[in-house]
Amino acid sequence: MHPAARVAGVRSGVLRRAAQRGAWAAAGRVPRPGAAVRLERLHTSVRCADSIYALASGPPPCGVSVLRISGAEAALVYAALCPGAPALVPRRAALRTLRHPTTREVLDTALVLFFPRPHSYTGEDVLELHVHGSPAVVRDTLLAVGAVDPAALRPAQPGEFTRRAFEQGRMDLTSCEALDALLRAETSTQRRLALQTGGGRQAQLYHALRADLLEAMVRVEAMLDFSDEDGIDDALWAPVRDTVDRVRTQIRRAMPDGRPAVSEAIAHGTQLVLYGRPNAGKSLLLNRLVRREAAIVSPEAGTTRDVVQAALELHGFRVQLSDTAGLRTGASGIEQQGIARTEAHVRDADLALLVCDAGEVCRELGGVPPCGATQVSARGADALGRLPGDELLLVVNKMDTVRDAPAPVPVDDGVACHVWQVSALHDTGVDALLADLGAMLAARHAADLREPPLVTEARHAHLLGGVLAALDRCVACAEDATLVAEELRHAAYLVGQITGETLGADEVLGAIFARFCIGK
Question: Is the pLDDT of residue 34 over 60?
Fold first, then answer.
């Protein structure tokens, strides 16, 4: 299409929609200026050409489904679907009959709410339709919304409502990421962490860091503007150096080891692996732990040749539980591959439980160790199939097969060990095992739970690492004001990338918001 024709077509569409809205307003089908609410949108800090709509609640069937429309056409949708209805009062629910905009067929009876810009989730005019949650009602109502004006209304992309909130200044990028974490939270701990990080402490830290860096940069650039030399006077450098040191200290305190302060175990789950000899009862124990048939149980040794995984929640922590192939020598090719995977999973695990047959434990250790913390001989632990690790977590299974087993002879210089006695077959001792594992997780992450961490995203940690590097270079080139100003500017730019104030690449935003569901 010729550019002039394209421009003419766009202008024609805009004029047509404006005339249509004016005709409906004259007929009393949308509120007039000065009435309960003015629905026509005139200006915004960021102009989004299209209005968008989507299902903003869970998939039907359900009791109630929420359909969200955001943009300048929200008024048009209300007028078209509720012809002749009274004006809406902002943020107050009203019962309305929804009709198809062309056929006038009744679609549903719904609660309708209007949130005028800029005091809405997206910062735009937002219309919400709370309809009955049947698949047919939701589908037909969404089709009706799109039919109001196909040139101006389109289905939302994943995360687009939240992206518009970001672009309109309603949220910064750290708040968007915290919201994403909240929507994905599967455990109570993940929920608390997401709410804490989204409460504003992160944003306050990053905004303060950026403000300090910009102030220091302005000081240095002022020196350049009013001095004939590139060097920095000691008296003028002192406050700049103080700012640099303060920012570096704050960043290092927020992520002491250069990584996000919150562990991956909280954010993404603890990796817990069951390993041991074939036929030790690992698969049945996994089923008991997760309270369902997640793994195949067979009396034949070597049945499990690949890693079987299942999730559970312990004391508010998400745990990814893995049942692995039994460890033994002389295994076949396929089984040997499974053993190699077992060893890799144990190396990468947060917790690894060595599951042993009680009879074998009696033979190798001279008895069954008592439950709790103890020590066992290194030779016996190796004979049971222990893989390298800080502490041996030993689950003595099949306790129903031994009677009056003696305790082994105590050792003072052996391997630190924590012992549980269970019978997966009879489901005894399993609850105690779960309780102790939950207590271990709570103890490991007690500091994170007491004081919510400030740096929770790997993206933030990577950018803050760049800030520290820029500030180190800044100190190293302190005699050259031009280089100092440039490093301070770069450091401030990197902090701004965390909050979204200086994002230049649309791919970064796309990657973040693509994680959201369509209705968010």
Answer: no
Q: 336: which strand partners? A: none
306-334: average pLDDT: 78
Q: How does 141-170 read in b/e, with b if 16+ C-beta sit within 10 Å?
A: bbebbeebbeebbbebebbbbbbbbbbbeb
Say if residue 23's pLDDT is above 60. Answer: no
- Burial string for 277-304 (b: 16+ CB within 10 Å, else e) reads bbbbbbbbbbbbbbeeebbebeeeebeb
Residue 356 pairs in a beta bridge with 396
State the pLDDT at residue 517.
74
The answer to whether residue 520 sits within a structural domain is no
Confidence of residue 48 (pLDDT cuts 50, 70, 90): low
Q: Where are the beta strands (DSSP E) in 43-171?
A: 51-55, 64-70, 94-99, 106-115, 126-132, 153-155
Q: What are phi and psi of 135, to 5 degrees?
A: -55, -40
Assess contact for 80 and 95: CB atoms under 8 A.
Answer: no
Is 511 inside any structural domain?
no
- 473 part of a folded domain: yes
Looking at the structure, tell me whether residues 314 and 391 fall in a common domain.
yes
316 and 371 share one domain = yes
How far does the chain reach from its first CA to its final CA, in angstroms? Answer: 35
Q: For the whole model, what pTM was predicted?
A: 0.68
Nearest CA among 385, 373, 370, 354 for reference residue 417: 373
Helix (H) or strand (E) segment spanning residue 352: strand 351-357
Q: Which tokens hold the place of 185?
A: 């939270």
Backbone angles phi, psi at 296, to 5 degrees: -75, 130
Segment 257-283 mean pLDDT: 77
Exposure string (b/e) for 38-63, b if CB count within 10 Å is 16 or more?
bbbbeebeeebebbbbbbbbeebeee
404 inside domain: yes
Query: Are 120 and 233 in a shared domain?
Result: no
Residue 259's pLDDT is what?
59
Quick one: which of 365, 361, 363 has its CA closest to 276? 361
| Contact in structure between 488 and 474 (CB atoms under 8 Å) | yes
Per-residue pLDDT tens over the stretch 105-129: 999 999 999 999 999 999 999 999 9
Host domain of residue 84: 14-167
Rounded Cα distance between 180 and 202, Å, is 15
Closest among 121, 36, 132 to 85, alpha carbons compared: 36
Q: How far apart are CA 520 and CA 518, in angstroms?
A: 6
Provide, for the chain, the percentages of residues in helix, strand and coil under a 3-state DSSP scheme, each rounded to the nearest 5.
45, 15, 40
Tokens of 427: 């489901």
Same domain, 464 and 415: no
User: For 406, phi and psi rounded to 5 degrees?
Assistant: -75, 160
Structural domain tally of the chain?
3
Judge whether residue 95 has pLDDT over 90: yes
The answer on 436 and 374 residing in a single domain is yes
